[in-house]
Structures are given as structure tokens and as C-alpha cells.
Automatic annotation (TrEMBL):
InterPro entries: Acyl_CoA_acyltransferase, GNAT_dom. PROSITE patterns: GNAT. Pfam families: Acetyltransf_1. SUPFAM superfamilies: Acyl-CoA N-acyltransferases (Nat) (SSF55729). This is GNAT family N-acetyltransferase.
Amino acid sequence: MRIPDLPPDLKFQPLAQTDEELEFSFRAKEQALGPHIRQRWGWDEQFQREVHCQRLREKPFFRVELDGRPMGTLSFQEQPGHLRFGEFYLMNSFRGLGIGSRILAHCLQLPDDVSFPVRLEYLLWNPVGSLYRRHGFVEIGRTPTHFLMERPKPPASR
């Protein structure tokens, strides 16, 4: 799946399988998700790296750039009957500026164009849920650690 750029300033590039890209994507995860992981379990660097490398093997990651500067990552992939959005991590200096909302709205236009629902999950104690609810996601389930959310496919247009 390809994510088109969002003019004038946002680009979405497939994450290359290089040491530099791996390190960037891991640091983005650590900055965005680390505080929520530390709060519950502490941060085990080696374990987190192993999990991150596994996720990189399992799904396509994109590097998000703002005016040519790498600012975060996301994963977006087609699954049977829905699209899966995840691994959405912005570096600290880019959070709280409305950029995440712009990125999410842009990415959600893709499944809307083909009338697909979108699913994601996030940690129960991560405040990012308010962002997802503002963009139409509703809870469809829960695990001991995660909310399971879906943004239903849009109604058919006439």
C-alpha cells in the first residue's frame, strides 16, 4: 500500500531496512510510547528492540517527514475486510501541534475512498484514544492491556 504525500509539507516514505532507519523508528517509538510502557512495566531496552524488529518484519512501516525532516512513523496495511493503522509514533518535538491529526485524517481518506473500515489498538492508559475518537473510531473490544478500535466504513454515497 502506498500513502500519497500531503502537500505542501508532509511525505510518507516506505521505511528502508537499514540500521539508520531502524534506529530512527525505534527512537520515535521510545519517545511516543516509552512513557506509557515505563509507567506500567518499566523500559527493557533489549526486549523493546526485539518487539520493534518483529513488528518491522510483520508489517509495512512508513517514515513520516515534515519539510524533509523525519518526524515519525506509521504502519498502514490491508487486512481481510479492513485496513490496519498502527505504529503511529511522532518524535517529541512534533507532538501537540496538530500534525498528528492532519496525518490521521489524510490516512483515513484512503480507506474511505474504497469504503473500508479501519482498525487499530492502543494501550489502555495511553491518552491517544481521544485523537482516535475524534476521528470516528469506536471501541469494539478490549484486552487486559489494549483498547481495540474501529472506524466503520463510510456509508455508501449516492
